[in-house]
Structure formats: structure tokens, C-alpha cells
Amino acid sequence: MTPSPPPSPPRTAGPPAGLARFNASARPDAAAALHEVCVCPEWAGGVLAGRPYPDAEALLAASDRAVAALTPEQLARAVAGHPPIGRPRPGDPVSAGEQRGMTGAAAGLRAEMLELNLAYQRRFGHVFLICATGLTAERMRDAVRLRIGNPPEREQEIVRTELAGINRLRLARLLTAAPGPAGRPREERA
Known about the structure:
This protein is mainly alpha-helical. It has helices at about 15-25, 25-35, 40-50, 55-70, 70-80, 95-100, 105-125, 135-145, 150-175.
């Protein structure tokens, strides 16, 4: 399976107000917002270093560069921040929304996905990571079936590509979210 290129947010007229908020945020506030996108501090540091961004595409490109620069240990730290497919963290509307394709899956498919997740984790030492937004439960299952046979080096590069896609989608949501208290984006509800 060849990974899809990281998705880009829909084009809008002019830069989103969220980008102006992000650029103007105090470093600790911007770092906290980025932590909601990806828990890896090295990725966040790479993104923060490029502020202010002239447009969303420049921010997304910086995110891609920061993911590409992660060492294997840093990539593992980033992946550790993601729950297994089919088991979003309770009270985490972001991962629940991203994994929405598993919501109505039949019990047999859910059980198979759990088994595949565990087998994948035993083989590679981390959760199966896929940019699940918009994917059906069957497509996620087929992807883990296919990828579990990859050599570790190949799988690490696929994981890096999937992480970049997830980060792009989350950054796009961050930029379009309405501001909450103290100018921080409101938490999305799935």
C-alpha cells in the first residue's frame, strides 16, 4: 500500500483568523496548542521556530519538515500520543472524530481490528498509526493487514507519512476553530 500524500486544508479567501491568532500567541500558548496536534516537543519546536507564518500552506510545510526531521526516538514519542484504532481515549473528541469510521463497525470487525492492532504492536513496538479521517473500518483493517508485513524501516517511513497527514488535518482544524477563552481555540466535539 502506497501512503497517500498528506491532505491539505480546503483553500479559502485570505489567511484564516486562526493563523493570525497562532502567530500572535505567546510561545507557551502556541506550544500548548501544538501539543494538542502532536505530543512530540521536537516537532512543536520545529513548527514554533518558523513563526510568524504568512499563510496556512507555509505552516503546513513547516509541519511536514518538522515531521521529516524527527529521529526514530522522537517519531516513537509522537506515535505514543495516539490511541489505537478503534479505541479512542474516553473524553477525547479529536481522536474519536478521526476514528469515526470504526463507530458503526460490526462486532466481528471490531474484534478483528483489536487482534490486528495487538499483532502490529508486538511486531513494531507501537500502535498502528493511520490518518483515519474519512476512512471506513474496512479500509483501516485492510491497511493494517497489508502493513503488518512491511519491513520495520519501510513501516517507519509510512508511519512518518501518516503522522504528517494527521498533523496537517489537526493544524487545519486549529486554524479554523473559533477562539475560546483567552484566545485559544475551542475544543472540537465529534
